DNA sequence: TTGAAAGCGCTAACAG
DNA sequence: CTGTTAGCGCTTTCAA
């Protein structure tokens, strides 16, 4: 168990009385190796406790068996249950296919156009899954132009060589608004979040459209944009309830924002859903636990991750002739808040 | 922007009229390079969009600048808010220090003794952070014997060359039990979880000890062991409330179990905390949101991750002369459930 | 301050 | 079924 000189493929070959190539073939299961030779090699490998050097293998074979996943370079990014869920899906699929995951921090708001493709050219990973990217990020374009294998998770982007897995935001918002209307609500507010995100944009557009279909007006005082998280939503939503006429329902572009809004409403002494109904989007873990339990549009977050990973594997195996563009369905989960 | 032949350090060298070594020195900032030469190289690198091949560099320099983090090979591992929090801490520190994170799936219950050290010898990472390992896992011993740099996160293990960051479980349980006693509870049940985990063991031992100090008896009917998660805790805790005398308080070894127990208690039509008080351990995200809000022992989970990563970096830089053995403090967060 | 030579440990491509 | 040759792209070491 002491420190030993590193055993290499050459050592195994020498012991076995064969060439390194034969050992390599045995190791990778490609190419023929005589059964007797194989057995001999196997025994020696075990005796010497040989481990292939993965760096050397990758350098030589030009495949690293690693999938890169971008995560926002903010503290606590992984505390976001939404990110954790996507990552969970990606990880499950990757690991089942002998790929490892490498976490790549990035700033969703800035970065040189070639940042991602440069990473790729450093050979740190074979393909990339992009999380939390913004609308029209030039880094995405650069990847596509260079035909680098990548998949967008929860981001919609119709362009050549861009593959994505996203959800049907339009449907989600329509379900939410129609449900509220059914329940007799008409003064509907919307917390849109950051419109540089494709989801936020889609949801916001869908909201306007659906409101129009329902012959309801979108009151500008009741619409909020910005980089919202729970805390900011709490802070900013104060103004929704300051005016004389207050909304009788609030649709939020994600659950964390809904949490903030709910806290605000409670603090104003208003009842949920009697005075104000609230609907979120995502169905994160807490949604079912808070009081009142959150009515929300559930998207299959983990499945997005799984499909993104599966799609990437297809790309890596050259099995994707068509662009992959999937919009998964969503459903309205009716709980107590609306 | 079209596909181009890969630019290498040799190309840069040729253009600049120097040797590859000079470019390498420039790139790594070690060794002297004339200012004028440096400038020339810099310009060429930019013009040619050169990216160093990280595999080749790692192979040659024997450093990969990657930290491996083990995660349990179960589906949805990352959905466990506790794991996500540790990972979050690790990631933040690693990324700030230009290390990447590689996720390494493992089975906490089985594996050959050399599994982890074999990974290390494959050169996939420079050091390892171990999450969710069990008591006396031989794989840990093997790492230590081979002097491989690694740190245990949330695991206590006194042995040479084993470094760990853990919390003061004994204190946590004592705070919980004493608080219950203060509130007049005496029929205290304990949901221990899996005793192969060091935390579960510590907590269980601490529970017995504190009960004794308080002159309370540990009723065997009210103690539950096993691989509990929320669902199983819900299922199994049924038997706690079947008997004639039921406990008036339940201490749980983690919050997810507490969630299951709470669901059970509610379903039995018992009131929390009036009929039965519940205390958890961890203070995961949901704890504050559930109804009733969970009284629990908060441990600084993310900080454990941060410290584990910082410690590993010290090991990698040879700056750890002493074994690193930290027990972080915990606090009782009093909410509604007890 | 710079360069030449010799690997790092493996595999692709071809030949036998 | 097996071996030879020639790299992969970089850094280490030593010499200049």
Automatic annotation (TrEMBL), chains A, B:
<keyword id="KW-0238">DNA-binding</keyword>
<dbReference type="InterPro" id="IPR028082">
    <property type="entry name" value="Peripla_BP_I"/>
</dbReference>
<keyword id="KW-0804">Transcription</keyword>
<keyword id="KW-0805">Transcription regulation</keyword>
<dbReference type="Pfam" id="PF00356">
    <property type="entry name" value="LacI"/>
</dbReference>
<dbReference type="InterPro" id="IPR010982">
    <property type="entry name" value="Lambda_DNA-bd_dom_sf"/>
</dbReference>
<feature type="domain" description="HTH cro/C1-type">
    <location>
        <begin position="3"/>
        <end position="55"/>
    </location>
</feature>
<dbReference type="InterPro" id="IPR046335">
    <property type="entry name" value="LacI/GalR-like_sensor"/>
</dbReference>
<dbReference type="InterPro" id="IPR001387">
    <property type="entry name" value="Cro/C1-type_HTH"/>
</dbReference>
<dbReference type="GO" id="GO:0003700">
    <property type="term" value="F:DNA-binding transcription factor activity"/>
</dbReference>
<feature type="domain" description="HTH lacI-type">
    <location>
        <begin position="7"/>
        <end position="61"/>
    </location>
</feature>
<dbReference type="Pfam" id="PF13377">
    <property type="entry name" value="Peripla_BP_3"/>
</dbReference>
<dbReference type="InterPro" id="IPR000843">
    <property type="entry name" value="HTH_LacI"/>
</dbReference>
<protein>
    <submittedName>
        <fullName>Transcriptional regulator, LacI family</fullName>
    </submittedName>
</protein>
<dbReference type="GO" id="GO:0000976">
    <property type="term" value="F:transcription cis-regulatory region binding"/>
</dbReference>
